Amino acid sequence: MKAVAVFPGKRQVRVIDAPEPELQAPTQVKVRTHEVGVCGTDKDIVSFTYGTPPPGLDYLILGHECLGEVVEVGPAVQGLQKGDWVVPRVRRPCPHALCPACRGGHPDFCITGDFTERGIKEAPGFCSEHFVEDVAYLHRVATELHDVAVLTEPLTIAEKALRQLDLIQERLPWRPVPGRAVVLGAGPVGQLGVLTLLRRGFATTVYSHSRKPNVKAEAAEAVGAPYLSTQDISPEELVRRAGAPDVIYEAAGTAKAAFEALKSLSPNGVFIFTGVPSKSEQMSLGGDDFLKQLVLNNQVLLGTVNAAASDFDAALEDLARFRARWPGGLERLITARHPPESFFDVVTGKAGGGIKHVITFT
Would the pTM of this model clear 0.90, i.e. be above it? Predict the structure, then answer.
C-alpha cells in the first residue's frame, strides 16, 4: 500500500510501498484512510528533531491526525461496523505496572515516558492507505461530520485544556463565570481553541504575530474573536483594549511571545501552554518579577499534551456544535487538500500558507 514515511537514519522523507496491515486480533478494526492532517509535530519529525521508528524498522509511517472508513472488523468488535467513519487516538500506554496513569486508562498523563504514539514514537502512523487499530482506540464519527472530522485530534488539545481549567478553578471560593480569554497564536490549534473558548462563554481575543489582513485573522473574526498583532500591540495595550485575560491559551510554540503575554494575565488567572517550541530562542526573564506576579496574584501555569478518550468524544460533539453555530467556520480552517506525494512540500511550507493542510487518500 502507499504510505508516507520518514527514514531518520538516511534523513529522507518519501512515499513508499508498505505492507498492507491485516487483522491480528478479534478486537481489531481495519480502516481505509481518508484524510490526514499535517501539523507542526510532523514538521519537527521531517526535520529529524524527533520521531522514532517501530522496533526493527528503519522508517516511521507519518501522520497522527486522521479520519478513515471501517472496511473490516474482527469477530469481537462491538460498536463499529463496515462503512462507519472513525478517528483514532494517538498515544498508547506504557507497559509498566508502576504507572498509575497508564494502568488507569490515561496514557496522556504517563509518568514513565515509555508510551508509544502512532506516527510519532515507535508506532506507525496513519498516513497510509490502510491501518489496523484496536476498537478501544477508535471513535465513531457522524456521517455529516466526515468533511471536517480530520480536525478532531487537534481540537482535543483544547478540550483537554479546558477540562483541566475547570478542575483548577475549583480552587476559588466562588464558582467563576467565563470571563476574558486570549488565544496566543492563530494556527489550527489556536483557531480551534478560539471556538472552544467562545462556546464556553469566554470573551475571546486572538493575539498573534502576523498583521492584518491575513486568512487567520479573517477566520478568527468571522466567528466573533477580535484579532490583534503582537507587532502592533504590546501586552500592556492588550489589557487596555480587551481587559486582563482570566485565561491565556498559548498555541504559538514560541517561548518569548508566551512569557511576554504572561504579563497581561489577571489575578487568579490560568496560563495554558500547548505549544512545543521547535527552535531555540534567546530571551531574558526577570525571575523576581516573574515569581512575584505568580505568587501575589494566585496565578497558575498549566502545561498540557495529548488527550484522553473523553476529550475525543467531547471534540466530536463540539464539531457538531461549531458547525451549527458558525456555518462554514470549520471549513474555513482547512486551507487545501493534497495527495500523499505532496506531503514533504506541505509540511515544509512549500505548498503555501493558510491554516490547516490535509493529505487525502481518496
Answer: yes
